[in-house]
Amino acid sequence: MAEQATILIVDDEKVVRDSCYRVLNKDGYRIETATNGDNGLQKIRKAKPDLVLVDLMMPGMSGMELLEKIEEIDPNIVSVVITGYATIETAVAAMKRHTYDFLQKPFTPDQLRIVTDRGLERRKLALQSARLQREKEMIRENFISLVSHQLRSPLASVKQYLVVIRDGFTGDVSASQKEMIRKAGAYIDQLLKLINDWLDMSRIEAANIKEEFEPVAIDDILSEIMELLKPLAETRKISLEKHFCDGVAEVHGNRENLKQAFTNLLSNGIHYNKEGGTVTVSSTEQNGCIEVDISDTGIGISQENLHFIFDEFFRVNSKETRSVTGSGLGLPIAKRIIEAHDGTIKVVSELGKGTTFSILLPKAKR
Ligand code: ADP
């Protein structure tokens, strides 16, 4: 907030404007006045006040309308309603929606000062919090750029150099050296997966996801993913089954993000499975929603770990999971994406028997 706070008084009664002006001007504030809502609106745009005192009962644009507009222009401007006894109920309604405080006419200079000081304190806190939010956002963006340029790119280059050495372009390579290079490459892949998942996680914001909404046929993307994951399933001797009910509707969503969410769930079903196991994907329509169930006959998750599996970086540490490389970000990413589609994700699991993830997404309206 500027050193000298600006207060705008919007009231059609000259005596109220003048008395507020006298008190607040004497207290060292910069004062602007307006005689009606339209005039008030112009002054808000021009003078960018910290606090606005608004009379509810004015000819032309009502105080309530003006309050709504102030909130649209800058929700951090503090509004105080000036009200007569007759409009006290409206003042309470305004308080609930757009207003910080109210002053009932007639009021004393001290009452005006108390309400103004409190309102300006609130304004100061709101501005501080907005500044901190901006700083946090900048740190996040800088960190994303640091991770992607200064970590991911050099790692990708190291991997390239290893391939050049492994393929004999720099001289003969023995079998044991090749094995070491393979292991080094696998560690680099692990790191790259972690970095890429972390970058995805940081970039997934509901607002960004919603920008690219289009009609998406869920069964089509599920089939696509199953096709893509077939080779992985085959190497792990897992069979993939699908049960789609005919004509499952579309959701209004971000195709790429939904693919990412379902890919994470399905690949988990394969990775955390047992040899000869199954992953079943089914979809049904119910009450304006599409339900997708991804069920596996794998290692399952204990009830105590089940509470944490959507937490960032959480991984179950057991002899069955040790051989699976992962980042602990697959499920949190899936959850964020589903929730950005106004959907829900639930899980039931039994240790040693298997796990089912159930996703509910609202159907696209036609
Ligand atoms: P990642 O698989 O990369 O470790 P996730 O966030 O996808 O991370 O999963 C978190 C943890 O939850 C996994 O490490 C695993 O222990 C457990 N998990 C996830 N899906 C399953 C599943 N279908 N069956 C058994 N455990 C699972």
Could you characterize the architecture of this molecule?
With 366 residues, the chain is of the alpha/beta class. 51% of the residues lie in helices and 20% in strands. The protein has eleven helices and twelve strands. The chain has helices spanning 14-26, 37-47, 63-73, 88-97, 109-166, 175-203, 206-211, 218-235, 255-271, 303-306, 330-340, and strands at residues 6-10, 30-34, 51-55, 78-83, 101-104, 214-217, 239-244, 250-253, 278-286, 289-296, 344-350, 354-362. The strands form three sheets. The protein has a five-stranded parallel β-sheet, with helices on both faces. It has a five-stranded mixed β-sheet with strand order 7-9-10-12-11, covered by helices on one side. The chain has a two-stranded antiparallel sheet with strand order 6-8. The longest helix has 58 residues, at 109-166. The radius of gyration is 30 Å and the shape is elongated. The mean pLDDT is 91. The protein binds adenosine-5'-diphosphate. Adenosine-5'-diphosphate is lined by residues 264, 268-269, 272, 296, 298-301, 309, 314-316, 321, 326-332, 355. Adenosine-5'-diphosphate (ADP) is lined by residues 264, 268-269, 272, 296, 298-301, 309, 314-316, 321, 326-332, 355.
